[in-house]
Amino acid sequence: MNLLILLLRRSRGFVALAVCFGLMTGAASAGLIAYINDVLARGGGLADRGSLLGFATLGVLMLGARVGSQLLLTRLQTNTTFALRDQLSQRILATPLRRLEELGTPRLLATLIDDVQAVTQGLLCVPPLLINGGIILGCMTYLAVMSRMVFAALLVFALLGAVSYLLPLRHIMGLLRDSRQTNDRFFGDLRSLTQGLKELKLHEGRRKAFLLQELFPTAQTLKQLQQRVSSLHALTTSWGMSLFFFFIGLLLFALPGFTHVPATTLVGYTLAVLYLQQPLDASMTLLPMLGAGTVALRHIEALALVPAESGPLATTPLAPPVAPARIDLVGVTHAYRRDSEDLPFTLGPIDLTLRPGEILFIVGGNGSGKTTLAKLITGLYAPESGAVHVNGQPVTDETRELYRQHFATVFSDFHLFDSLLGLAEGGRADKVRAYLTRLQLERKVRIDAHGALSTTDLSTGQRKRLALLTAYLEDRPVYLFDEWAADQDPLFKEVFYRELLPDLKAAGKAVVVISHDDRYFDVADHLLRLESGAISAAPSHRETEASA
Ligand SMILES: Nc1ncnc2c1ncn2[C@@H]1O[C@H](COP(=O)(O)OP(=O)(O)OP(=O)(O)O)[C@@H](O)[C@H]1O
């Protein structure tokens, strides 16, 4: 899909009107040149009032049509750019988590920041290109009418110019594509730079190796690609323009030697060709930007994000979830396939059941598949085989979004928003205060009437408590904590396992806890131990089949 189609999709009527204005600009420009040529041929001065009026009318028409076309297309471009940003955010949220994980954060960031900007700039090129196209068309028509023979010669030059411009342009497009790929790598390096600050500051050798072997070489490749694009473009543009001067030279000095060309034709041609130089020069400058926008747009499409029509804002608001009598995972599996690994990690098949008022502990060594299972339980991953049932009804692709609304979670890589995003509204201020006190955060964080947090610059353990507060406010039927207590001090660990979890259980919540704290395994009603993606065959004294 190219940028023009993107604009057309947004509003065919707008584009058609703007193109008409563009053509009018071109026709009026050609008319003005004809007038000027006419005046020059007569040795200056407009013959009569009618001619003066005609000249003035064409001037106003040209300016009016140009401004009209520019305004229409610029407005359309701004609307399309903002719609693209909004849609992209919605599409990312509608795309399955697994696909987003495969794409990786650097690629998504590069798209959200760079690609959207490149598309915006590409779209900005469309209005002037269309207007210039109209002017070129108008002038060419005038030239064809003036002298077929000279026009044929001009066409040969124009063709030569077009070929010698388009061939390098293909190469420029290839360079732009390479540059776009390198940009993904560059964003990956920038991510390492910002997230690895401590590690890089603390180890000089690592810092140097990172800069010299990763960041700088990628930046250098990017710079070289961009320089090659600029140089090639400057060369082809200059070559194209010099062809025009060569043509004028031939017209003025060589052609009269072969055949008789009236002086008015020579003046008219020289005038029109010189006039054409500006729109042609501008168009040639704009085309690579249009190309970069097209490459960026293709890149966005290649992400294969779910269409915005099924995005989160497109669906009707979901009703608050009703506590299910049971949730069953029946033979669910999930595998991570990576080219770099001989054997993919496979989780399952897993059977388990969640019931209100019951606590399930999921335990096991690092990499045994606990977090993966948590993503399957919460509907963040769709099972590759097997099924999830709510009260005996299978969860399908259509109902998975609704299913996810049953869960309040704190994953180990949770994100803390700097606002409660609607959770503090509806007279919940007292609740918020009570939870802050219970989580021993009342001296650290204040939450205003709109739910904005006074700070999120807290210790890891405190940030996790804030995340827990958010989960409490969500008040969902099922709670899932992924190694929540790992960063808590012994006292608060005790509070979490001996008070908070039993309270949730007493409130009729189903609770899933991923834990390494074997001191507290007795809190669980069921305990599921994972080993290399499978339920361990050797349960300890409290371990029961979770599905029992
Ligand atoms: N996004 C991913 N892409 C590819 N492989 C993954 C991904 N996430 C996890 N894995 C792999 O799946 C396996 C299980 O990971 P998982 O995070 O589920 O384990 P875990 O039991 O939660 O580990 P830990 O106790 O260390 O948190 C690991 O071998 C890991 O390398």
Automatic annotation (TrEMBL):
SMART domains, sorted: AAA (SM00382)
PROSITE patterns for the chain: ABC_TM1F, ABC_TRANSPORTER_2
Gene3D superfamilies: ABC transporter type 1, transmembrane domain, P-loop containing nucleotide triphosphate hydrolases
Entry GO terms, CC: ATP-binding cassette (ABC) transporter complex
Transmembrane segments: 53-73, 122-143, 149-167, 232-253
Matching CDD domains: ABCC_MRP_Like
NCBIfam families assigned to the protein according to its UniProt record, in alphabetical order: cyc_pep_trnsptr
Location relative to the cell: Cell membrane
InterPro entries: AAA+_ATPase, ABC1_TM_dom, ABC1_TM_sf, ABC_transporter-like_ATP-bd, Cyc_pep_transpt_SyrD/YojI, ECF_ABC_transporter_ATP-bd, P-loop_NTPase
Molecular function via GO: ABC-type transporter activity; ATP binding; ATP hydrolysis activity; peptide transmembrane transporter activity
Annotated organism of origin: Corallococcus macrosporus DSM 14697
Domain ABC transporter: 327-548
GO biological process: one example: peptide transport
Top-level division of the source organism's lineage: Bacteria
Membrane topology type: Multi-pass membrane protein
Domain (ABC transmembrane type-1) ranges: 14-292
Protein name: ABC transporter ATP-binding protein
Keyword annotations from UniProtKB, A to Z: ATP-binding, Membrane, Nucleotide-binding, Transmembrane, Transmembrane helix, Transport
Key word Transmembrane helix present: yes
